Amino acid sequence: MKYLTKKLFLISTFMGISLASVFSLATTAYASSFYISPNGNDNNPGTISSPFLTISKAQEKANYGDTVYILGGTYTKFNITKSDANYNYVNNITKSGITYRAYSSKNIPIFDFSKVLPSKRIAAFLIEPGVSNVTFLSFQVTGVKVGTQKQSECFRVEGNATLNQVVCHDNEANGFYFVNHGTGSCIKCDSYNNIGPTKNSIGNTDGFGAHGDGVTFSYCRAWHNSDDGFDCLTSNGANTFDHCWAFNMNAGGDSNGFKIGGYGAGAPPNKVPIHTVKYCLSANNNAHGFYANHQPGQSATWTYNSAYNNKAGNFDMLERISRNNSIDIPGTREIVHYNLTYGGNAIKNSNLPSQNVSNNSWNKNGIVVSSSDFQSLDVNQLSSPRGTNGALPLITFMHLTSGSHLAGLGCF
User: Fold this and answer.
1) What is the pLDDT of residue 30?
2) What are the domain boundaries of the chain?
3) b/e code 61-81 from CB counts within 10 Å (16+ = b)
4) Domain 82-390 belongs to what topology?
5) Contact, 293 vs 324, CB < 8 A?
6) CA-wise closest residue to 272 among 238, 317, 320, 303
7) In sequence order, what are the residues at sequence separation of 6 or more whose Cβ sits closer than 8 angstroms to the Cβ of residue 15?
8) Which N-terminal stretch is annotated as signal sequence (predicted)?
9) Cα 147 to chain center, whole Å?
């Protein structure tokens, strides 16, 4: 290994590119593929004709740069691979640089954890601290139980992971949960019908949770989860929400579309992060559409977002005075431009200077918003099937009519 590293260093110097790039090229050139199947066996060699059964076995054989292909069908046979005082971890990801992906987009694999009974909290997938560059692509997770626990999670990311076109649905657990120093991204992912069944869990079951060192969410959807669609309470790092939709959060928990900021009873970090919320849509939620959530400072820059019929207010800019003073105040530091709302209170808890809150539908001169400005107000369109390569569905909901005086506002 020492000789190989020295050789790669000489190559990188000669080619004028980074050692990391050369290492990536080298590992790609020698990458291997392994396969798992619901009908596989961990005593098999892991080939496409003789696949493994479990991700754990495939990970044991794989190395950085390798790909584990997940053959279609429903996976129901699981073992607990790691436990601690609070959790039973089913798939414990301990190696960096491995891709776990569906073999075919025409036969999407489903991991059904309904037979894994929760004597503790369950994490269906744990990405351990220090693990990086792990990719998950095109499969579904369902059936994760919570029992009498406060919460369980489909994906618990404490390292670094990219999740692309992954769907978490009909669980008693959080869908995607980045925590501690977890980082990464969710791209074209859906999280829906994840509902805590008890008083203890109903308010702890979100679609997406960004509570780590910074996560990017792009073209993701959350709907009908029992707590919030997207939640970044207690986050240490800045999160980005780009072209994401949150709607129909009405199953009994906090029920916000985007809960951006806040630290509850915990201590904020020395540098409070400022998040980015752009080109997002929040509709028909029982609480707030876009919520600054008691952030001790600016919660976010909010631009080109659309909100409809959120019962506690479409935008709520509630802040607290500072890191050391937890008294709540109407927001004074948020940046809010080019947003569009209809139905319900446009903005509340806002004491923003005019330069921070301009060119929005509620404060742009001469603007009056009515139902006739929109091609459709049918929220049901938002849960339509995705298009090719996981693209968001083509809809008319909150799209402006031709020649609308609202052009240039909102996410469409």
Assistant:
1) 80
2) 1-30, 82-390
3) ebeebbbbbbbbeebeebeeb
4) Pectate Lyase C-like (2.160.20)
5) no
6) 238
7) 22
8) 1-31
9) 24
